[in-house]
UniProtKB/TrEMBL annotation:
Gene3D superfamilies: Cytochrome P450. It is found in: Membrane. The chain crosses the membrane at residues 6-24. This is Cytochrome P450. Heme binds at C432. Keywords: Brassinosteroid biosynthesis, Heme, Iron, Lipid biosynthesis, Lipid metabolism, Membrane, Metal-binding, Monooxygenase, Oxidoreductase, Steroid biosynthesis, Transmembrane, Transmembrane helix. GO terms for cellular component: membrane. One of its GO terms (biological process) is sterol metabolic process. It comes from the Eukaryota. One of its GO terms (molecular function) is oxidoreductase activity, acting on paired donors, with incorporation or reduction of molecular oxygen.
Length: 486
């Protein structure tokens, strides 16, 4: 075959290839993507994005990208093209349009360890069904009549073990409190008994893997976590079998009927696998985030003595009223009197940012503020960046609980914009089902803490984002018993 004949044979293929690239370029050009850098192939900018930094900041990566590209920029994170948003309006828009324009889209490794039926990764009708179950069990009536008492009992169980002038990890104590509470709340497990302690041990291993690189290799934290997950699910399954047997035999136990496992077995048609993943995900969500929030409050308050003093005054008044009425346990009216405490809780969540960003995916092409978000692209609304935005919150790195009183008193449109930008529990249809329980736990723990103890940091430590929030040294504190004048 001559050269001219070869060229003629290859020409159609060459023209097709050129046409293909032209079409690709036209398709790319029709999108007005935000500015940004896609980084290295596959890895993109993930390593830089996940580099640890102070939890009371947005980190060097975000600072540099916002400075260079603005509050909305493109990147390549977790192996996918991504739109990152530090914009309060876009974040609200994303969360409010859940299921219509966007849907939850966590990395596959998260689903692999939490389970495919975990509420964190579910979307659509199944997520709504699981959420309704959780909301029914965490109803306002149940918080008032049952959970408030349980929260106070478990708070006192932990605080009564604190010896005067002792030093210990406040982070570990907060985790002990929330784990014991959730184990009791979910499966009626008593604190301190062998099976609860064994479950806690497995759960600690499990948690280390959830927040580790997803390397399923011998000896890695992720592999150990998968093994602990299997052990935990077998434990829950045994509890389920025991309950079902009792139900068939007509054996009633009021306490077990009131926990989540009993409620789900009686009031849902979920499969065994779905129940196991639901319980595991609620144990994860209810324990980890609340314990970090309590540890953050313990960390922030010593740096603001005026806030501790105002807290003590508020809780002494509540305690005095209890004493005069001859009551000992807190009730819902007492909880509703904790106005300044709620300001401290809001400020702790704003400055500490337990949940720093969310994973979403565009379900169709979306245009916002002149920028296009292509269908199928990942979208990361960065909640922490909004909470630490100086245009929305004055001196955002400063722990100032009184800002929430000022916002409440001031009904200007700018203030409303600030409060609507505060989303520590997410928003829209996926708003955290346990948000009210989390605030109740923090308030009751703070109530007994400030009435009975002085505390200070025993050594320097600070909250870091890994991106999960953690204290590298466990937040060591020294406590002294304090008896309030009641």
């Amino acid at each position: 075959m001559s050269d001219s004949e070869l060229i003629l044979c290859l020409l159609p293929s060459f023209l097709a290839l050129v046409l293909f690239f032209i079409l690709i370029r036209r398709k790319q050009k029709r999108f007005n993507l935000p500015p940004g850098d896609m980084g290295w192939p596959f890895l993109g900018e993930t390593i830089g994005y996940l580099k640890p930094y102070s939890a009371t900041s947005i980190g060097e990566f975000m600072e540099q990208h916002i400075s260079r590209y603005g509050k909305i920029y493109k990147s390549n994170l977790f192996g996918e093209p991504t739109i990152v948003s530090a914009d309060a309006g876009l974040n609200r828009f994303i969360l409010q349009n859940e299921g219509r324009l966007f849907e939850c889209s966590y990395p596959r490794s998260i689903g692999g360890i939490l389970g495919k039926w975990s509420m964190l990764v579910l979307v659509g009708d199944m997520h709504r069904h699981m959420r309704i179950i959780s909301l029914n069990f965490l109803s306002h009536a149940r918080l008032r009549t049952h959970l408030l008492r349980e929260v106070e009992n478990h708070t006192l169980l932990v605080l009564k073990t604190w010896q005067d002038n002792s030093v210990f990890s406040a982070q570990d104590e907060a985790k002990k409190f929330t784990f014991n509470l959730m184990a009791k709340h979910i499966m009626s497990l008593d604190p301190g008994v062998a099976e609860t302690e064994q479950l806690k041990k497995e759960y600690i291993t499990f948690m280390k893997g959830v927040v580790s690189p997803p390397l399923n290799l011998p000896g890695t934290a992720y592999r150990k976590a998968l093994q602990s997950r299997s052990t935990i699910l077998k434990f829950i399954n045994r509890k389920m079998d025991q309950r079902i047997k009792k139900m068939r035999e007509g054996i009633e136990n009021l306490e077990e009927d009131n926990d989540l496992l009993g409620w789900v077995l009686k009031h849902s048609n979920l499969s065994t696998e779905q129940i196991l993943d639901l319980i595991l995900s609620l144990l994860f969500a209810g324990h980890e985030t609340s314990s970090v929030a309590i540890a953050l409050a313990i960390y922030f308050l010593p740096g603001c003595p005026r806030a501790i003093q105002q807290l003590r005054e508020e809780h002494v008044e509540i305690a005095k009223a209890k004493k005069q009425s001859g009551e000992t346990e807190l009730n819902w009216d007492d909880y509703k009197k904790m106005d300044f405490t709620q300001c401290v809780i809001s400020e702790t969540l704003r400055l500490g940012n337990v949940v720093r960003f969310l994973h979403r995916k565009a379900l169709k092409d979306v245009r916002y503020k002149g920028y296009d978000i292509p269908c199928g692209w990942k979208v990361l609304p960065v909640i922490a960046a909004v909470h630490l935005d100086p245009l929305l919150f004055d001196h955002p790195q400063h722990f100032n609980p009184w800002r929430w009183q000022e916002m409440k008193q001031n009904n200007s449109s700018s203030t409303n914009s600030n409060t609507s930008s505060f989303m520590p529990f997410g928003g829209g249809p996926r708003l955290c089902a346990g948000s009210e329980l989390a605030k109740l736990e923090m308030a009751v723990f703070i109530h007994h803490l400030v009435l009975n103890y002085h505390w200070e940091l025993a050594e320097k430590d600070q909250a870091f984002a890994f991106p999960f929030v953690d204290f590298p040294k466990g937040l060591p504190i020294r406590i002294r018993h304090h008896t309030a004048c009641i």
